[in-house]
Amino acid sequence: MNPGIRGIAVNTFRESARNKMFYLLVFFGVLFALSSRLVSFLTLGDAMKVLKDTGLAAINFFCVLIAIFTGINLVYKEVEKKTVLAILSKPVRRDEFILGKFLGLALTMLAALAAMAAIFFAFILLNGGGFDWRILLYFAMLFLELLVIIAVSLLFSAFTTPILAFIFTVSLYLIGHVMWTYNEFKALLRAPAMKVLSEILYYLLPNLDKFNIKNEVVLGTAPGAATILYTVLYGAVYTAALLALAVLIFRRREFQ
Q1: What spatial distance separates the first Cα and last Cα of the chain, rounded to whole Å?
Q2: Per-residue pLDDT tens for 5-54?
């Protein structure tokens, strides 16, 4: 790996790991996942399914919060404190700066997700459940989704304030999870120009629902190998496109 990218990635990981907000969100993620046991007592039906459903949903929610809140401040904080000028004065290019920030936060999310997954697996085993490889697949898909979210938040943090970056990132996240309704929306359009525009937007907007396999995990099924491969390729291409756009914007940005 390029020394500049590696150095920024390691430094970003250390900074994120020292962030109190990071530990707070991880704590609440684990707490809410474990509280799913209480929810299973209060509901009718298969308690293990309820435990998995609520636990995985809680982990998903707090991991997304970590990715957004950390990502929107990655570049802005460096620019606001003028430390970006010191970094770029060294043999570090702007594209290396962006890629290093992305890899550092990706490593941070991987560590947080691994910790939550280990605790959740132990919790399942302690409550009489066995090892389910589908849960492992769920966490892998969640990590791919988090990479897309990190790239989105990094893109917006490259040219705007944290508040606007938060609004834009959350908006795209919510849109990405209702893309399954988009075909119904397109069917209601009559003007040819609007149909073309809606088709373009369909491919430009992130379809994050592709990564959500929680229902399959809870019900004991799993997507096919072809579907998983397509989802992995989709996540990789979409993340790479977002990073390329973030690099392009950051290259043109002027610092005072």
Answers
A1: 31
A2: 888 888 888 877 666 656 666 666 666 666 655 555 555 556 677 777 77
Residues in the chain: 256
CA 177 to CA 199: how far, in whole Å? 17
104-122 residue pLDDT tens? 989 988 988 888 888 888 8
Rounded CA-CA distance 65/177 in Å is 15
Spatial contact of 105 and 243, defined as CB atoms under 8 Å apart: no
Q: How far is it, in rounded angstroms, from Cα 94 to Cα 19?
A: 24
pTM score of the predicted model: 0.86
Helical (H) or strand (E) element with 21: helix 20-34
Helices (H), 35-161: 36-41, 47-71, 74-80, 83-88, 94-126, 133-157
Assess whether pLDDT exceeds 60 at residue 153.
yes
Is residue 155 within 8 Å of 249, Cβ to Cβ?
yes
Please state, in angstroms and rounded to a whole number, the distance separating the CA atoms of residues 104 and 150: 10
Q: Which residue has the tokens 């904080």?
A: 77
